[in-house]
Amino acid sequence: MLRGSSFAFGVGLQVLLSVAAVGVPTGAAETLPAPTALRAVARDGEVLLAWDAVAGAESYVVSRATTPGGPYAVSAEAVTTTYHTVIKLDNDVAHYFVVSARNAGGEGVHSSEVRAMPFRLWPEGDEWPFTYRTQVGGQHAFFHLWLPPHTAVVKGLFVFTYHGCSGLFGERADMRYLAASLDCAIVGLGGETVRRGFTPSQIMFDALGDLARQSGHAEIANAPIFTFGHSNGTGFSAGFTGQEPERVIGWIAFKSANGSQFSLPPIYTVPGLVLSGERDKEYFNNQLETVERLRQESDALMNMIVEPGAGHGPNGDKSYPICMAFMRTIFRLRVPADADPRQGPVKLIALKSNSGWLGRNWDKAVGGGQSLPAAPYAEFDGDRNRASWLPTADYARCWQEFSKTGTLNVWW
Q1: What is the pLDDT, as a whole number, of residue 28?
Q2: CA dihedral defined by 255, 124, 154, 336, rounded to 10 degrees?
Q3: H or E element: which one contains 395?
Q4: Which residues pair with 135 in a beta bridge?
Q5: Is 278's pLDDT higher than 50?
Q6: Which of 19, 64, 120, 394 falls between 20 and 30 A from 404, CA-CA?
């Protein structure tokens, strides 16, 4: 990619990524390398797959097995994108997938294998099987828990506050399927004295301890946490992170009320996404300026997105995929593959801004969807100190697509 250039968007983006650098080999044929970063999200009767592009690939072959290590049967060939959905799969059965690249010189080697087990979500009325109830400041408070059905050890928690759209996001099917793919549970908390944030953080830990007991998953008491808050719910998502930065994987301030809600020094080393609506006239005020200032003054691990044409709430179903892309990216970067909360609190992997990408921020004077340049940290030719920090190349592409179109076709 050229320094500071913008990617293509939408479906065209995915085609570009998968066929970029295509060429017919000359001389002796070289075996194409294996696709990297193969990932899978199982849903009802299907599995969503995505992987990083291979230079020189013209297409990809997706293969599947029902036992680890094969033998594999081809599920799809001549796939010209870096994603594919395998359908008509049996639920509650483990499936194993590999992907290989192909060009005129032949087929390359298999990727590392990923495992996925499709399942059907809850029957209606059973969205939250476990609940802890308490009193905080003389007011009723609750903490709900959902567990994926095939997770033996819970590796992490996605925690949503029932303020604005946050709690409903935690109930959405794709959010549940994403959590399951990462062996994570989901917590939804609410009540007048907790939904916009609370102190002390022990309130959360008491709830998790009781939910661990109820569910029979003792590791929940120690599992690392990813927080999400809408509007003044940022008082929870950023506020709890400020109290417990070593426990939090990442945080999202979705249409926050103002920049002061995430101007908390302890959270600057914890990856965060600040997403505001362009037409959120009541609340979109100083968030962009705050992110730029915190990037400049504190090298905060934050990125800013202005959702084109959107207001204070979610723009239908379009707003959530970029949040899920950030969640799965940060979870995979920060939670060690061998993490086991049964043994105690998990030591999260620290991230550095110079190991990621940078992107030029949205321009208020221009407005609307914008093609924003992004590049690896060392190659970015804009103001590195104020640019949005983007953890990976894949997330940078997602960030660019959403900033331009207000949609994201492939979030997994």
Answers
A1: 42
A2: -40
A3: helix 393-405
A4: 140
A5: yes
A6: 19
Enumerate domains of the chain plus CATH numbers.
Answer: 10-116 (2.60.40.10), 130-405 (3.40.50.1820)
- Look at phi and psi of residue 56 and say left if phi exceeds 0, alpha if psi is from -120 to 50, else beta: left
Residues 220-245, mean pLDDT to the nearest whole number: 98
Which among 242, 141, 232 is positioned nearest to 193, based on CA atoms? Answer: 141
Q: Alpha carbon of 336 to those of 70, 82, 97, 241, 248: distances in Å?
A: 26, 25, 22, 19, 14
The amino acid at residue 265 is P
**Which is nearest to 142 in space by CA: 187, 184, 173, 172?**
187
Tens digit of each residue's pLDDT (9 = 90 or more) over 333-378: 999 999 999 999 999 999 999 999 999 999 999 999 999 999 999 9
Query: What is the per-residue pLDDT across 10-31, written as a single tens digit (0 to 9) for each?
Result: 433 343 334 333 344 444 457 9
- The pTM assigned to this predicted structure is 0.91
Query: Angle between the 10-19 and 393-405 helix axes, to the nearest 10 degrees?
Result: 150
Sheet containing strand 156-161, edge to edge, reads 130-136, 139-146, 184-190, 156-161, 225-230, 248-254, 272-277, 302-307
The predicted pLDDT at position 126 comes to 65
Residue 84 pairs in a beta bridge with 49
Sequence-ordered strand ranges (E) for 255-401: 272-277, 302-307, 357-359, 374-376, 388-390
Element (H, E) at 48: strand 46-50
In whole angstroms, what is the distance from residue 266 CA to residue 269 CA?
7
Contact 130, 209 (CB under 8 A): no
109 in helix, strand or coil? Answer: coil
- The whole-angstrom separation of Cα 118 and Cα 47 is 7
Distance of CA 161 to the CA centre of its chain: 17
Mean pLDDT computed over 249-266: 97
Element (H, E) at 76: strand 73-79
Q: Please report the pLDDT score of residue 328 as a whole number.
A: 98
